[in-house]
């Protein structure tokens, strides 16, 4: 962990009553960085955010902002601002009063407040709505008021708790980019909690993937997408096709042993940490390609080829999605042209799209979420 | 479908008519008595109408105005004292995860649950010893114990209806706990608190037993005046006093519905 991080969470344990939600968690965030906390519901991401904000007290560990220990500070003294999932706009105040409230608390003069509020309204496209009450706004406008209220106080760290989850799908796409460009322009440090993989990918500099109260992996969007460190991350990042195999590791080469549906395949280890034994192999539907049984095109080196039958075909848009049956298992594979149901096909997965993980000891069930 | 004559209107009309008579019959009688100059058996209606008793009630020598003032002062003080207790109590009960929360809420019902008479006789005896008997403060204290159940229950519901996110949003951008309470929670809970104030006010205005044992004869509230007039056979004075008591009750009941919104009502007692 970078010791010069702007926000430093060290060995922090948090829980409610006797249940521990986060156990000895470490996290460092640079100044000006946009970090997404990504995970399914109940993984502890919102608890982590609320603890950083000061609404939950850790059992142990510390939180530091710019080398200032804030662990025991109340939320209002931390110099952060939280944007709530529900927006939590005050219904008895106008848009301008909502945005200006934080400035009023900081005892700015009336003129300063008015200037800053109208600046915020212009920035967020809320001009002319200053006298409306939150109840008279659309979902997207409310979301912006919530953002403006948080940004107006010029927080050291902006905390976003699933701020887009209550928006229409179409508005959500534009607001993603708006928030991202705003964050870049203002150079704010931001932590964004979300369960939406794509949202995290397009908005964040760094994605922190959480599972069951732990950080599974953190890295840039490309890193977590192309080099998932654990089966959970691979599955969360869309590699939902899963097969069990045996591998033997020979130096920089790994050999996938012959199975009922595949020939023995040798592929480069390419930095994977693997040991000889049973493995879980994962890949994305769109990473594999489908060819007819009679197709004699040469297999590129290191790619895995599987033989199976097309069980069903559907068209989700852009490409045809095939469910291919391999004995008891079924995998999903995309192709540009449809294959007939029942046809025998070859599924080819290039080496760099294969995510291989040692199966943990004992009977491991499939990683689902 | 064929149109059929629905004979169900007959029993319905009968029940509704009966209900109207039960409610408005006594009220009509009351109003008639206030303007009756002369009315005795076996006449169905007053023999003479006039406002001479109104003049007597509102004349400087009549004690109705004085009683009305006493009643209003006591009711107002009761509201202030009840809310001063109910606002912190209701806030704590709605926000903190207290053990036995249900039991605490139920405890405020105790003054209503026991038979009033023996309780007030004992309170009167005790107040007499410490010099509170026959004082406005003593009557206010009795009314507060009675009104607290409305005040605390409704205040708890009113605070529960304010989403905690709204308070945390204020905290997160720099408001201390008291500031967040004053600027966000309190204004949003105000309609509910207003409703609880109205209930406490009406309860105090109407209260008889406690006022009688603790207040009479030094503190003379409107219900006590009504009692004296009624037991003295002066139905005109009694009716006029009753009408005076009825006006604020009906007036407040008409507005209380505006303050008690469904989201608050659904949380009463929870």
From TrEMBL, chain B:
Organism (species): Phyllobacterium sophorae
Stated family: Belongs to the binding-protein-dependent transport system permease family.
Pfam families: BPD_transp_1
PROSITE patterns: ABC_TM1 (PS50928)
Name of the featured protein: Spermidine/putrescine ABC transporter permease
One Gene Ontology CC term in the entry: plasma membrane
GO biological process, one term: transmembrane transport
Membrane topology designation: Multi-pass membrane protein
Residue intervals of the ABC transmembrane type-1 domain: 68-256
Membrane-spanning ranges: 12-36, 68-91, 103-123, 135-159, 180-202, 235-256
Top-level taxon of the source organism: Bacteria
Compartments (UniProt record): Cell inner membrane; Cell membrane
Alphabetical keyword list: Cell inner membrane, Cell membrane, Membrane, Transmembrane, Transmembrane helix, Transport
UniProt-listed SUPFAM superfamilies: MetI-like
Xref: PANTHER family: INNER MEMBRANE ABC TRANSPORTER PERMEASE PROTEIN YDCV
């Amino acid at each position: 962990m970078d010791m010069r991080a702007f926000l430093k969470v060290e060995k922090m344990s948090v829980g409610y009553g006797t249940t521990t939600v986060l156990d000895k968690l470490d996290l460092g965030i640079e100044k000006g960085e946009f970090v997404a906390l990504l995970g399914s519901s109940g993984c502890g991401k919102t608890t982590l955010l609320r603890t950083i904000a000061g609404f939950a007290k850790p059992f142990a560990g510390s939180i530091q902002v710019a080398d200032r220990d804030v662990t025991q500070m109340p939320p209002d003294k931390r110099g952060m601002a939280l944007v709530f999932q529900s927006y939590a706009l005050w219904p008895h105040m106008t848009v301008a009063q909502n945005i200006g409230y934080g400035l009023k608390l900081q005892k700015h003069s009336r003129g300063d407040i008015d200037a800053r509020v109208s600046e915020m309204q212009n920035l967020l496209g809320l001009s002319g709505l200053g006298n409306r009450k939150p109840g008279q706004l659309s979902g997207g406008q409310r979301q912006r008021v919530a953002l403006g209220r948080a940004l107006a106080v010029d927080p050291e760290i902006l905390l976003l708790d699933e701020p887009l989850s209550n928006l229409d799908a179409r508005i959500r796409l534009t607001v993603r980019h708006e928030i991202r460009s705003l964050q870049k322009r203002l150079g704010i440090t931001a932590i964004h909690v979300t369960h939406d993989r794509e949202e995290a990918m397009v908005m964040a500099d760094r994605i922190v993937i959480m599972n069951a109260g732990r950080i599974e992996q953190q890295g840039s969007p490309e890193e977590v997408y192309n080099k998932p460190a654990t089966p959970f991350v691979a599955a969360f990042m869309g590699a939902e096709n899963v097969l069990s195999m045996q591998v033997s590791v020979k130096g920089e080469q790994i050999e996938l042993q012959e199975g009922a549906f595949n020939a023995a395949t040798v592929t480069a280890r390419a930095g994977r940490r693997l040991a000889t034994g049973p493995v879980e192999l994962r890949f994305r539907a769109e990473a594999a390609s489908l060819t007819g049984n009679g197709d004699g095109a040469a297999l590129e080196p290191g790619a895995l080829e599987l033989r199976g039958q097309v069980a069903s075909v559907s068209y989700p848009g852009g490409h045809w999605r095939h469910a291919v049956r391999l004995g008891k298992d079924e995998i999903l594979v995309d192709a540009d042209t449809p294959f007939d149901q029942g046809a025998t096909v070859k599924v080819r997965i290039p080496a760099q799209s294969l995510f291989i993980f040692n199966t943990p000891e004992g009977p491991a069930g499939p990683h689902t979420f | 479908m064929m149109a059929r004559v629905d004979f169900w209107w007959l029993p319905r009309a009968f029940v509704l008519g009966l209900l109207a008579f039960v409610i408005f019959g006594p009220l009509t009688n009351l109003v008639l008595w206030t303007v009756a100059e002369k009315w005795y058996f076996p006449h169905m209606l007053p023999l003479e109408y006039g406002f001479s008793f109104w003049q007597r009630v509102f004349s400087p020598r009549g004690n109705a105005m004085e009683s009305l003032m006493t009643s209003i002062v006591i009711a107002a003080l009761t509201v202030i004292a009840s809310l001063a207790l109910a606002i912190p109590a209701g806030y704590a009960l709605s926000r903190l995860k207290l053990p036995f929360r249900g039991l605490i809420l139920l405890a405020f019902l105790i003054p209503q649950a026991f038979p009033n008479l023996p309780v007030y006789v004992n309170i009167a005896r005790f107040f007499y010893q410490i010099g509170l008997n026959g004082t406005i403060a003593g009557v206010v204290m009795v009314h507060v114990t009675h009104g607290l159940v409305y005040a605390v229950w409704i205040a708890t519901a009113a605070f529960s209806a304010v989403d905690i996110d709204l308070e945390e949003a204020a905290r997160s951008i720099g408001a201390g706990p008291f500031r967040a309470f004053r600027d966000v929670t309190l204004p949003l809970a105000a309609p509910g608190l207003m409703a609880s104030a109205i209930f406490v006010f009406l309860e105090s205005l109407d209260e008889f037993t406690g006022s009688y044992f603790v207040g009479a004869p030094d503190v003379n509230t409107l219900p006590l005046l009504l009692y004296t007039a009624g037991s003295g056979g002066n139905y005109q004075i009694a009716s006029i006093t009753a009408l005076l008591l009825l006006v604020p009750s009906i007036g407040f009941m008409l507005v209380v519905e505006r303050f008690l919104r469904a989201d608050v009502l659904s949380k009463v007692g929870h």
